[in-house]
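Friendly challenge for the regulars: who can give me the structure tokens for this chain first? No prize, just bragging rights.
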Amino acid sequence: MWGPYPALVEGPTEGAVQGVAFKVDSQRVATRLAKYETDAYVEHDCIIRFESGETLLGWTFKWRGRADDPILREGSFNLREWQSARR
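First reply, four minutes later:
Bragging rights claimed.
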């Protein structure tokens, strides 16, 4: 975690991360999303495997620094809780 936000860090190539996929359907949206993520993250390709078994190539934002960066801490992120707290 980087503050209240999840930070995807370098790990085993075959490692898996559970999350949510968002279809970016325009360059404008992609640019806004990258700006929102700040320069603390770098775009990185990934394989998205849906619960249905379907897979596709996608992109994620990976922590730009090292996995042992002292600014990061262990933790978990719950999207519903985060959304509820922001209301």
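The helical segments are 27-37, 79-85. The first helix runs from residue 27 to 37. Your move, everyone else.
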